[in-house]
Design a protein that fits this description.
Elements: H1 16-49, E1 53-57, E2 63-66, E3 69-72, H2 74-85, E4 95-98, E5 103-104, E6 110-117, E7 122-132, E8 136-141
Antiparallel strand pairs: 1-8, 2-3, 3-5, 4-6, 6-7, 7-8
Length: about 140
């Protein structure tokens, strides 16, 4: 008589042991599949929420002129970076961001902002313009 893989040999004659093993395996596969789906959804949600890029309108309230180019005010860059830097408890660290000047709306321009952690240490946050038009600037920072 064949073995039933982990069930009592007394149940072999009735076939009950084989049925239980098959059901236990189906349950285990279902649990593993469900756990994998939860991890995949959490990863996707984290990537969507924890973005490091922002597109900002160059309007009359938040824009200034620097060397003949529109530029985004430092307080706007700092505020948006601070909000995106620590969007979830497991992404980034909480920092207070400040930027030394405006971010010129010219592709490739880098502005080096700084973030002060709760313990007083300072981290450098490079902000780079990736796209610029006459009405919007898209910029990215490094976490």
């Amino acid at each position: 008589m064949p073995e039933t893989w982990g069930r009592d040999r007394q149940e072999q004659g009735s076939g009950v042991g084989v049925t239980r093993v098959k059901l236990d395996r189906k349950f285990a596969v279902g649990v593993a599949g469900g756990a994998a789906a939860v991890v995949a959804l959490a990863t996707l949600a984290t990537n969507l929420i924890a973005k490091t890029e922002s597109t900002t309108e160059l309007n009359r309230y938040d824009t200034m002129m620097v060397d003949g180019h529109k530029a985004l005010a430092p307080k706007i860059v700092a505020g948006r970076t601070q909000g995106l830097y620590h969007p979830l408890p497991w992404v980034g660290v909480r920092v207070h961001v400040s930027c030394p000047g405006p971010l010129k709306a010219v592709r490739g321009v880098v502005l080096r902002c700084s973030g002060r952690k709760g313990d007083g240490t300072v981290v450098e946050i490079p902000v780079t313009v990736v796209r610029a038009t006459s009405t919007h600037v898209t910029w990215r920072f490094e976490r």
